[in-house]
Amino acid sequence: MNIPQSSFPRVVIIGGGFAGLAAAKGLEKQELQVVLVDKHNYHTFQPLLYQVATGGLEPDSIAFPLRKRFNDVDNFYFRLAEVVQIHPDKNLIETSIGNLDYDELIIATGSTTNFFGNENIQKNTMEMKSVPQSLNIRSLILENFEEALLTDNIEQRNALMNFVIVGGGPTGVELAGALAEMKKGILPKDYPDLDIRQMQINLIQSSGEILKGMSAQASEKAEDFLIKLGVNVWKNLRVLDYDGKVVTTNGIDHFRAETVIWAAGVKGEMVHGLDATCIIDRAERYKVNEFNQVDTYSNIYAIGDVACMKSEKNPYGHPMMAQPAIQQGKLVAKNILAKLFHKKTEAFVYNDKGSMATIGRNKAVVDLENWKFQGVFAWFVWMFVHLFSLIGFRNRAIVFLNWVYNYIRFDRETRLIIRPYKKKKKLL
What we know:
The protein is an alpha/beta fold. 32% of the residues lie in helices and 22% in strands. Among the domains are: 10-39 and 81-113 and 266-340, FAD/NAD(P)-binding domain (3-Layer(bba) Sandwich), CATH 3.50.50; 119-264, FAD/NAD(P)-binding domain (3-Layer(bba) Sandwich), CATH 3.50.50.
């Protein structure tokens, strides 16, 4: 890997998401050698991926180069690589570009889409966990409308204009709202020779409520917003299969659609090598103690989505969201410093700052500890929080200007098929 030898202890961080970045920030400018390894050279602000997918933002406005964040930090090294395996007996990680030993290891690999073992669904549906995947969704949406213009088959045209989103969490709700706004104000202008009223947006949730992790008040209001926007909300309906043409459910309702987006669950992004006893199989998350140390390993930590810290208050671990990840990253950095310099370490206590989701223009729901509100004010709060959570002044400025422009013009001008998702048939 060409990392210079140092007399300082070496801390290796796998993953540059919210958790890994928070840990790296906490360890900078210390008497340590910090090595950050990630398969991408940028940090992605995942809460805004849906806006990239629906043409509201360009990907470079929600991504920030990891090297740039730490380019003035001594004893910090970034390597673009995939971690293949951990060898805890040797204090060594095996990567696609070579091996690297460590004194302390932080696993912050985040999460990936959980298809619950259904190969057809995994093969034929779209997922939205990264910038490339969001761009694929954008291209597919636009390509389907272009294709709908060319076909005389009404059934095929309706399938091309039918969108199914599986999962009623924040990702599914926000994406459904964004698509509904495109249907209302943008697509009729782009495709005047198509009857956009035939476009269907279906949000399918297996339980009896959307935004399950939020309050009943937020769930009901979000559903009301979606229905008023023209989204078909299907509750207590489970998707069993999708063959690329028809969505099969456990009810009498089946959907013929060319675009199915899977937002029904996530699981930890595991790294091979650790003992099977410290892994929760179905969730694929590492069991950690109150200090985020992986079970049976004193110098290996797991933080963020890939970590499961069970307690009476959180029997299934903390929610797989940005806030727990950031807080765990900060504390692990603090505890590693305390450990290396023989000071007392501190147990993790999650400070729930609330949750929020936007459903569209002037429509959002916010749950705080002692205050729950919805509507226009909630929308402004949502925008403020997400804007200032972005890394870098440039990204904040670009996103803000885009939002202002889109609000005034009621438009999304990044509807570009830069990289076609599916091969076009040659017109004879």
